[in-house]
Amino acid sequence: MKILIIEDEIQSRKKVEDYIKRYDPSINIVLSTGSFKEAIHTLINHSIDLVLSDIEILDGNVFDLLTETPVVCPFIFISAYDHYSFNALENHGFGYLLKPYTYEQFSKVMANYFTLKTKISGTNERNIEALQIFRDPDYRKRIVVQSGKGKVSILKVNLVKLIEIEGGVLFAHTESDKKFIIKETLTLSHIEATLSPKMFF
Fold this sequence. Notes:
Pfam families: Response_reg. The chain is of the alpha/beta class. It has helices at about 10-25, 35-45, 60-70, 85-90, 105-120, 125-130, 190-195; strands at about 1-5, 30-35, 50-55, 55, 60, 75-80, 95-100, 140-150, 150-155, 160-165, 170-175, 180. Strand 4 (about 55) and strand 5 form a beta hairpin. The N and C termini lie far apart (about 45 Å).
């Protein structure tokens, strides 16, 4: 497996490298860089399986890189800010780690990636459907929510029965009667426009 790391803070970059080696020493870190120029060159000239990337680095924003460069691999985004989470989901985002994060949080995201990768290794209809996580869907399948104090999680849209606004704050209610604050800088009408009318009406 080949991984690209994009992080301009030396200590943060070393942390990602150490966590990867701890998780699976056989993983090949093709490049660990703080430069978009080097990252773009690597994405063009190597077959990268997964990118772990900060969002804001010295020479730009990672979403600009995704606009300029054809990318087919998933990203795990790493940031000190949670307000990028919606953009992350719309730009090849598979996971989102909020700094400071622990090895346990890192390993969970990696385990989820490998689980999904195994599931989509075939070509049947179910696996093709799972692969849509790595593509831009017609309608969103996930919502970024607050799952605890300082914690951000991904909530599958098919688990949501109601989205409402209370006091200027958006909430998602699940079929199991749980209530989550939606951590996305969007209006109710914007979210409604991105949801499948077959599921919400």
